[in-house]
Amino acid sequence: MKPATFDYVVPRTVAEAVEALGDTGRKAQVLAGGQSLILEMHLQRIRPELVVDINRIPELDGMSVEGDELRVGALVRHAAFEEADAVPGPLGTLLSRAVVNIAHPPIRSRGTMAGSFGWAHPASEWCAIGVALDATVEVTGPDGARAIAAGDYFLGPYRTARRPQELITAVRLPLLGENTGVGFIEHRRTHFCFAQVAVAAALTVSDGVISDARIGLVNSADRPIRARAAERSLLGTEIGPLPAGPRLPDGHPFARAGRVAAQEDAEPVAEPYADVEYKRQAIAVLVGRTLRQATTDLRSRRAAHEGDRQ
Ligand SMILES: Cc1cc2nc3c(=O)[nH]c(=O)nc-3n(C[C@H](O)[C@H](O)[C@H](O)COP(=O)(O)OP(=O)(O)OC[C@H]3O[C@@H](n4cnc5c(N)ncnc54)[C@H](O)[C@@H]3O)c2cc1C
């Protein structure tokens, strides 16, 4: 199928883009990487009257560290996160572990992190990480700029708190401190499919006990969610030696957190090849494994730090 007819503009500044989007006489869509939009237009599931191509707006490109946050401009492609040292600290590790799960290299070299927030697919890796880490979505519209907390941003599948006339200019993520270990594990049918479920975790350990836990669930509800009950179950827990072998004993705090996430936090939606019960089982297992990965990450980070000091 071919897209329906549309007008096309290429603004050179954010102000020009916002002006084009504010032309409320026409249904407009922003074109960033085009990796979701163009497909949807070809299938005529989306029929914009105006396409606003933001790829020639230099102020939207690049990422920078600002205080204790990473600011990711709206034109930064997924591929920018493939090397763990592209971003400092544990956040860089988390983003590099997650990004290889997004589609395949040609899509990652065009698609953008901000575009994933614009599209708001429940199976988006970036969106679940954003919710887990309390990211901020920066938008600019006819009434000026505003910041939306990721926890308030996602309203349902493909539905967000962004107004149609607003442009996402950047996504801001906390860098995470050196006492934080991170993990990301995804489960999907074939290599390039969207996740059936995936889990992002960031565990902060102070004086030997978990002082902060963040768990983001991908494709485990009608939107990306944070597993708050599971997080609460971990606070104050002492992390001892990790059991050998892939399976965590049922009584282990990470296994318990997995069950809590699956039963209390997740609201899985059935899909072909993954009914609700299957997804709950996958979430329980993946949460436990991802917490284990985060612990190993923290321990190797600390060991490397000790090595540096000797
Ligand atoms: C085969 C295939 C497999 C894929 N697998 C995955 C996967 O596993 N995980 C995953 O997360 N994604 C996956 N994707 C989607 C891909 O990651 C897209 O790149 C992403 O969803 C959207 O980014 P984009 O920059 O391409 O946005 P576009 O396609 O250009 O836009 C998508 C939507 O977001 C809006 N938008 C984009 N940027 C902005 C902005 N700055 N301000 C306001 N609105 C904006 C657009 O108007 C549009 O509605 C896959 C895509 C394909 C084709």
Structural summary, described in words:
Keywords: FAD, Flavoprotein, Oxidoreductase. Pfam families: CO_deh_flav_C, FAD_binding_5. This is FAD binding domain-containing protein. InterPro entries: CO_DH_flav_C, CO_DH_flav_C_dom_sf, Diverse_Substr_Oxidored, FAD-bd_PCMH, FAD-bd_PCMH-like_sf, FAD-bd_PCMH_sub1, FAD-bd_PCMH_sub2, Mopterin_DH_FAD-bd. It comes from Streptomyces milbemycinicus. With 310 residues, this protein is of the alpha+beta class. The chain has three domains: 7-53, 2-Layer Sandwich (Uridine Diphospho-n-acetylenolpyruvylglucosamine Reductase, domain 2); 58-174, Uridine Diphospho-n-acetylenolpyruvylglucosamine Reductase, domain 3; 180-309, CO dehydrogenase flavoprotein, C-terminal domain (Enolase-like, domain 1). It has helices spanning 14-21, 37-42, 89-99, 105-110, 113-119, 125-132, 150-153, 228-234, 253-265, 276-309, and strands spanning 7-9, 28-31, 50-53, 63-66, 69-73, 136-141, 144-149, 154-156, 159-160, 167-174, 180-187, 197-206, 209-218, 225-226. The protein has a five-stranded antiparallel beta sheet with strand order 4-5-10-6-7. A hairpin with a 2-residue loop joins β12 and β13. α8 (228-234) packs antiparallel against α9 and α9 crosses α10 (276-309). The longest helix has 34 residues, at 276-309. The N and C termini lie far apart (63 Å). The model has no long low-confidence stretch (mean pLDDT 95).
